Amino acid sequence: MAVVVETKELLQTVAASLIAGVGVTASFSLLVFAVTRSAEMRRDERPMLATAAGALAVVGLTVTTAAIVLGIVVMTSK
After folding, report:
1. In this structure, are residues 50 and 42 in contact, taking their beta carbons and an 8 Å threshold?
2. Higher-scoring residue by pLDDT: 1, 30
3. Residues 37 and 60: beta-carbon distance below 8 Å
4. Which one, of 27, 20, 37, lies nearest residue 60 by Cα?
């Protein structure tokens, strides 16, 4: 009997895309939040919190960039 749809592979693809979509969105949201928080803390003359928020922004940028690069590598390797 011919298999029209590979259900297992389809579900894996849906799960991976859902996780990737939510993960990239969350990391970019973290980046935007941290950048705005850092700017606010700098304006309020709170340098320690501004630095901490800046470090959090770097983490968000790193995770977002890594996810995008990984996605491109996976797409081009198939």
Report:
1. yes
2. 30
3. no
4. 27
- pLDDT tier for residue 5 given thresholds of 50, 70 and 90: confident
Q: What is the pLDDT of residue 4?
A: 82
Residue identified by tokens 């990737």 is 20
User: Which are the contacts of 74, defined by CB distance < 8 A and separation ≥ 6?
Assistant: none
Alpha helices in 1-78 (DSSP H): 7-43, 47-77
Q: What radius of gyration, in Å, describes the C-alpha atoms of the chain?
A: 19
Is the Cα dihedral 49, 51, 52, 58 positive or negative?
Answer: positive
Is 7 in contact with 50 (CB distance < 8 Å)? Answer: no
